[in-house]
Amino acid sequence: MRRLSVWLLVVFSLITVIQVFGTVFLLFDYSDLNTPAILTRVCVFLLIAFCMNAFLAYVISVRMREPLRNIARRINSFPGGRSLYIQRSTYSEALQLTRELDDFLRRISTDLNDLRLEKELLAELLEGLREGVLCINKNGLIVYQNSAVHAGLVEKNMNGRPYFAAIRNSKLLEYVHQIFGEKFENNLDTNRSRNADPDTNRLRNVDSGNRPGGEIAFGNIELTQSGRSFRVSAYPVLMGGDPELYLLLISDQTQQITTQRLREDFLQNASHELKTPITSIRGYAETMLFRE
């Protein structure tokens, strides 16, 4: 802002000097300039003109500076600031710019509030799921994780941290690294030993392909951690054809696997228990037939 005032003062001063000397050379001969009276008049006129132009430059700079300062304050206080204070004495161009900027910032503030509401609603919905949800952006940073994510797989409250610093399960870390390719290979090698767990040796690629509706899905995996079984599925969130986020769904399969094992054990035991009396009955029947 100060540069504007200085430049205006310099420009008006140069214009004043040019005007004064032009007037002198047009109205007076060169010989008349040697007289003290003429020189005094020229100097006084030059001083008065300089002071008037300096005052005019100051007034113009102030009238232009205030709207710009007002706009700067409004932008710096966004989005929580109040509307712009519009001065009636400012230039029409600055007044229009101020109003348009205030309207533009007001629309942006409304959009931000809507996005914030949608974000909170989505977070509440994801928090209510039984499945664990882990969201990683294209830069490898965790942007969201709900409370259903097992602490043995991913550390809690790691939003904004790299995935290789948050994932504690080595097999899950390798699986996520395969999604990102070679981008974070060095970090994977560094964290593989740190996240090693003897209880995570089971890793099986279940299936891969496309989800219904054409969404691309990476291969699902099953792994164990702390005596519990998990199934992990990864899906990219595309924007403009490129993956912007990667969504990992982690479902606890322990109860289903336990139920399946109990069912299998029951069938095996029932088959064994039924096999013994059936064999005895068959033996008695054969004996009776043999006697006849």
Task: Provide the fold topology.
Layout lengths: L1 H26 L8 H41 L15 H36 L4 E6 L4 E4 L17 H4 L3 H11 L4 H8 L10 E3 L3 E2 L5 E2 L3 E5 L2 E12 L2 E11 L1 H38 L1
Helix pairs in contact: 1-2, 2-3, 5-6
How many domains make up the coordinates?
Answer: 3
CATH superfamily of the largest domain: PAS domain
Mean pLDDT: 73
Order of helical and strand elements:
HHHEEHHHEEEEEEH
- The fraction of residues in strands falls at 15-25%
Largest sheet: 6 strands, antiparallel
How many helical stretches?
7
Q: State the name of the first-level CATH class of the largest domain.
A: Alpha Beta
Strand order of the largest sheet: 2-1-8-7-6-3
Nearest-angstrom radius of gyration?
Answer: 41 Å
Looking at the overall shape, the CATH architecture of the largest domain is: 2-Layer Sandwich
Which shape, going by the Cα principal axes?
rod-shaped
What is the fold named in CATH at topology level of the largest domain? Answer: Beta-Lactamase
Distance between the termini: 123 Å
For the structure shown, list the relevant keywords.
292 residues; alpha+beta; Beta-Lactamase; 3 domains; six-stranded antiparallel sheet; two-stranded antiparallel ribbon; 7 helices; rod-shaped
